[in-house]
Design brief:
Layout lengths: L4 H4 L24 H13 L4 E5 L5 E4 L7 E4 L4 E2 L8 E10 L2 H7 L4 E3 L5 E16 L2 E2 L1 E2 L3 E6 L11 E7 L5 E5 L5 E3 L8 H4 L2 E6 L6 E8 L6 E7 L9 E7 L7 E2 L2 E3 L4 E10 L3 E10 L2 E10 L4 E4 L6 E3 L2 H9 L3
Parallel strand pairs: 16-23
Antiparallel strand pairs: 1-5, 2-3, 3-10, 4-9, 5-7, 6-7, 7-8, 7-15, 10-14, 11-12, 11-15, 13-14, 16-20, 17-18, 17-21, 19-20, 21-22, 22-24
Length: about 325
């Protein structure tokens, strides 16, 4: 497997530096090296990419090494070099898939949608995926759509009403999802290649431009009834937005992760200034930070009240030498 970790944290437009979208190159991020290393490790371990032979006249099909049953179809004459030359030979594929809340936490890949210039809302995912294709160390140019097929059974979310989203990374290494224009990413409902009637449904995603290499998402807004509240969580003084993050896991919800993006250094508090989650929601506050090369975390159950405000006690922190322990703790939540 050939890893290209320098690209893993870019958005679907990997060269974007638009301040409106908060898109930055990974080298500009203010996240601490220790936390970056932990997240990189978690992503590296689930990169199911590899090398395959591509023929310009025949195309190629790449099969994920994971149990997800995902496929990437690169048709004949679909990719070229930057100089416009046909490609024949070995290509390198990075392919990462995330479906569950525990993977989202350790990789810092929440399901938050940018619904206006100032507000975010919560998505439920049919699959987050990262894709990059290289030939002789250089990213290829897409001239015909590449098809990514993701099995709907990987997520417990209802596939009806799903839409496609592009991922954007901000200066604190936090991911937000923007609605993808249909001329960049689109669904194909054909599905005949994989005999859907017998094996189940697939999301057939067409990646139409090299600008869409990076993080993309199959999601829809999570329906939440009732009045909503802001949430603020004070964390121990050794932590801040550079070496930690704070999330909300909804009880009984596997395929969604809420993140508190703003950080107030005057009171060491993560928060969200716009009400998103409903009052009365049964959930868990998940704090995850890095110290001395290890994940340190705390999980606190709660029912959200109006103007919800919490504190993570230092005495509640648990240190783990591997991210799998943190994953297991989140996965075990009812």
């Amino acid at each position: 497997m050939l890893m290209t970790m320098s690209l893993i944290f870019t958005s679907c437009n990997s060269d974007s530096t638009d301040s409106k979208d908060q898109g930055v190159n990974r080298s500009e991020a203010t996240v601490s090296p220790g936390l970056k290393s932990l997240r990189d490790k978690a992503l590296s371990d689930i990169n199911s990419g590899g090398k395959i032979i591509y023929s310009s006249s025949k195309g190629a099909v790449f099969y994920s090494k994971l149990k997800s049953k995902s496929h990437i179809i690169i048709p004949p004459y679909a990719i070229t070099t930057k100089e416009g030359k046909d490609i024949d030979g070995e290509i390198e594929i990075d392919f990462i898939e995330i479906f569950s809340k525990e993977k989202m936490v350790v990789a810092n890949k929440p399901t938050m949608a940018q619904v206006s210039s100032k507000t975010r809302d919560l998505l439920v995912t049919g699959g987050e995926f990262y894709l990059d294709v290289k030939f002789k160390g250089e990213q290829v140019v897409i001239v015909k759509p590449i098809q990514v097929n993701v099995d709907t059974s990987n997520s417990k979310a209802d596939p009806n009403g799903m839409a496609l989203w592009n991922g954007v990374i901000d200066t604190n290494d936090n991911l937000t999802w923007n609605t993808a224009p249909k001329d960049e990413l689109s669904f194909n409902n054909d599905g005949t290649i994989f005999n859907v009637k017998e094996s189940g449904g697939f999301y057939d995603v067409f990646v139409k431009s090299s600008a869409n290499f990076g993080w993309c998402n199959i999601d829809k807004l999570l329906k939440q009834d009732g009045p909503r509240t802001t949430v603020h969580v004070q964390v121990p003084l050794a932590f801040n937005h550079t070496n930690s993050a704070t999330y909300i896991v909804i009880k009984g919800q596997t395929n969604a992760l809420f993140q508190l993006y703003t950080f107030d250094s005057s009171n060491n508090t993560f928060g969200d200034d716009y009400p998103v989650l409903p009052v009365g929601l049964d959930c868990y506050i998940v704090f995850a930070g890095e110290q001395n090369g290890n994940y340190i975390y705390s999980i606190l159950p709660t029912t959200l009240q109006n103007n919800a405000s919490y504190s993570v006690p230092a005495s509640s922190l648990i240190t783990t030498t591997n991210y799998q322990q943190l994953e297991a703790a989140i996965q075990a939540l009812p």
